[in-house]
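Figure 2 data, in text form.
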Amino acid sequence: MRWQVLAALGNGWLWLLAVLSVAVLLIAGAPLWFTALTGVAVLAGGATVQGAVEWRAARRRRLPVGDASTAIEPADVRDSQAATIIGRAHAATARMRTTRQSGLDAPTDVLVGAEVAADGAVATLNDLGRQVDRLDRALQSVDLHRAQEELSRVEARLAHDTAASTELTAQRRAITESLRSQLAAHQRLQDQRTLTLTRMQSAAVGLEGLAVRLSEVTALYAARHDDAMTSTDLASVADDVDRLRSDLVDAEASLRESLRSLD
């Protein structure tokens, strides 16, 4: 809980309340030692109360030891590449959960915060995997080889059939435009699929790296009990996991928007 209390000391409202308390006592003519002690008590008491509230909230988010039923499970994703990436991310979050459940004395609230953010990242990866399945279905709706061959034939006729009527030529041009449109749509879908899978891979690799860092920091804490070093490093890991999750949410929202035309 000490980490929440220290963070609460930065609350501007607590400082304002402490300053007002000091000002009232000074105006009332109270002794300086009593005035200073009151200001410190107001600030420390308020920070303790706020820290306790935030600590309890973090404790409520904590997963019970040995209870895997609440963990985020991999989605039923058909695309093999997406499913493999999700599996890697899920394994990384499982390692984070094992680190928290290992019984080390590192600050539990920070470990839980990193774990909750990691579960959120896996849940978003599941959603992205389902979107990759949608992209796959859309790509399969275009017979790429047939469209390319047909376009080549029609373009050859346009170039060499100089005796064709104006109406026939116009029809052939309409066919080429339609086929080019299909091929362009196919390419956009393919590019989007590649980008999405790359983002997912980047997130999975990031989670794996953060799981290793988390294990390292907690191990160092157990060996050295360096509160100052460990609290900073753990907070950094938790922030990095949450930032990764946020980036994935943004990517998933962007992909959904780009796929609205398929609905």
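Caption note: Residues 1-8, 58-73 have pLDDT under 50 and may be disordered.
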